[in-house]
Amino acid sequence: MDKLPKIALPAIFILIVLVILISKSAITIGSGDAGVLYKTFGGGVVTDEPPMGEGFHIVAPWNKVFVYEVRQQEVFEKMQVLSSNGLEIKLDASAWFEPKREFLGKLHQEKGTEYIQRVLLPTIRSAARSVVGRYTPEQLYSSKRDAIQAEIYEETKKIVDGQYIQLNEVLVRDVTLPATIKEAIERKLKQEQESLEYKFRLVTAQKEAEKVTIEAQGKADANRILSASLNDKILQDKGIDATLELAKSPNSKVVIVGSGDSGLPLILGNN
């Protein structure tokens, strides 16, 4: 009985040490994350092996694991940039990105966990200033937003690709001009719209006038052809045909052939 405490105390001590070691060695990597292993006595950051995947892992208690989110993420940025004529433009943009999983060790070693603030955001700001500086406020306000968005994406992607970051999309969400410039642009656009509408009305009226002229010319030509085709003989024949039709009528009448003008028959009726 006296020996039991002497055996139990070391066992309890060893058990406690094991629990501490296991708790220090165990790590669980969540969904959408990956881990970069840092070996304290083995050369530092592991860059020549794939990162640690999701799930439960056991590592030596003297080593460390840095967890990164490797699914697509979104970052927002509000910027003040200058247009081609030096006016200050406010630009709201966001970027969809993810770290390149196969280079996660390199990313951690060279950029660290603050890679978004150190690399991505400064690159987006620089690209936005460069791109917006090529356009006038009128272009930024109206027709060039899609082009600006595409150019910012291309310039940003060109840089961050070499920094172990995969850029999926850049979205320009809002472009804010100075109030006076915005009002001037809106007035100009309204005037241009009114001018286009006036030109459309003029063209429509001109086409309608041409239509009426063509119709009138057609009627005149038809009448001229008809007049040219009529002569006294034709008229006389028509008159005789009409007289014969009238003579067939049951109403009492006297028909005197050849007694009218131009030799046409006269019809004398009782009524």
From TrEMBL:
Name of the protein: Regulator of protease activity HflC, stomatin/prohibitin superfamily
GO annotations of cellular component type: membrane
Lineage of the organism: Bacteria, Pseudomonadati, Bacteroidota, Flavobacteriia, Flavobacteriales
Species of the source: Pricia antarctica
Parts of the chain that traverse the membrane: 7-27
Transmembrane listed as a keyword: yes
Coiled coil: none
Alphabetized InterPro entries for the sequence: Band_7 (IPR001107), Band_7/SPFH_dom_sf (IPR036013), Prohibitin (IPR000163)
Record's subcellular location: Membrane
Database matches in CDD domains: SPFH_prohibitin
One of the protein's GO biological processes: proteolysis
Membrane topology: Single-pass membrane protein
Record domain Band: where: 24-189
Gene3D superfamilies associated with the record: Band 7 domain (3.30.479.30)
